[in-house]
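Data deposition worksheet. Section B asks for the primary sequence of the deposited chain exactly as it was used as input, without tags or linkers unless they were present during the calculation. Section C holds the resulting structure in token form. Section D is free text for depositor observations; keep each observation to a single sentence. Incomplete worksheets are returned to the depositor.
Section A, Depositor: J.P.
Section B:
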Amino acid sequence: MTFSVPAADQVAGDDPEAGGDPVARGARHPQRGWWRPWTPLALGFSLAVVLGVVAAAWPLPYAIMKPGPATDVLGVHAGAAGATEPRIVIEGTATYPTSGSLSFTTVRVAGGPGFPVYAWDVLNAWLSPAEEVVPVDALFPPEATQEQVAQENKAEMASSQQEAAAVALRALGLQISQVVTVREVVTGSPAEGELKAGDVLISIAGRPASDAAVIRESIQSVTPGDAVDVVVRRDGSTVSARPRTRRNDDGRTVLGILLTSSYALPFKVSIDAGNVGGPSAGLMFSLGIFDKLTDGAMTGGAAIAGTGTIDDAGRVGPIGGITQKMAGARQSGASYFLAPRRQLPRGHRSRAGRSAGRQGRHLCGGAGCGRGDRGRPGRCPPTLRRCVGGPPGRACRHPRGRESAVGVGRLT
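Section C:
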């Protein structure tokens, strides 16, 4: 009987015929299928391309708020004939030269009707400290069209200019009355057939239609379903109507009319704001008109930017995009920033009177009170007459002690 012993360099299972040598096995049976060492890289690259195409083509339901330009209301612009014209034109009364700048700030909005944004836009905005991403419904009504948004912004801008002029002239001691006009009669409303667009309201429910607030109060005093006496001026004639009211979904009494306000000014005031809409430039328009109608530079020669709505009573109201507007003001070279006081970031508030005093002037609410061209103190609107001392961010006060809604931020 004989025994065979494996050689020292051969172990069980290493027989090439049994498939023990992987190199030899691979030589005889080439690798089949699609997998290669570089396959993961190719798959990752392909996936990135697909995601990039989707991100570039699929609009997202967001809007992006970005800093917009600042426009000096004391400056000039290119007119229709190519010649430069003042932004604020006042005809029929004396005006005075001024210096410095009073700029209204704006927000550029990407997104919304007609202007979709995509994933790359949103990602870039998230990485920018001066931009903000918000749901598109937070800025625009659902189903609103591009034309509707533009129309609404244009109407708000026109209204803010009218109110700014009235507030400035009242600050000069002039009596300015408000004229309220029917802008639109809602189809199917109780007022349809009784009132017309263009009617100037004289009285309603026996009360003079002195302003829109009084008109709304008069309508609310009527029981829904009852008729109300309305007197209007139409095509130069006085017309009496008696439309019925109805209850709105929120419980209010309504006539179904949309109103617009204008003012009977003693002289012509026109403002060219360029291609900008919305109501938030009202504060700066009012200050600019006041400055042109008073002797001496209200700014004291400073570069001042700001934002804020203004109503018929001269109250400064809240705005949107404060971060973007401050960034735009800083980019324009402004030294001070005016805004509704409660919206002004604490880190940017300053003691306006003291900081400006080093430059030989006093800020009234952050706008002027500077030395005039003849060395006399410039005049300031009553609601922004002086700033009191105290810690940074202290509010400005009216001479009668009422707190102003305007705060001033130091940008430099």
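Section D:
The mean pLDDT is 77.
The longest strand covers residues 62-72.
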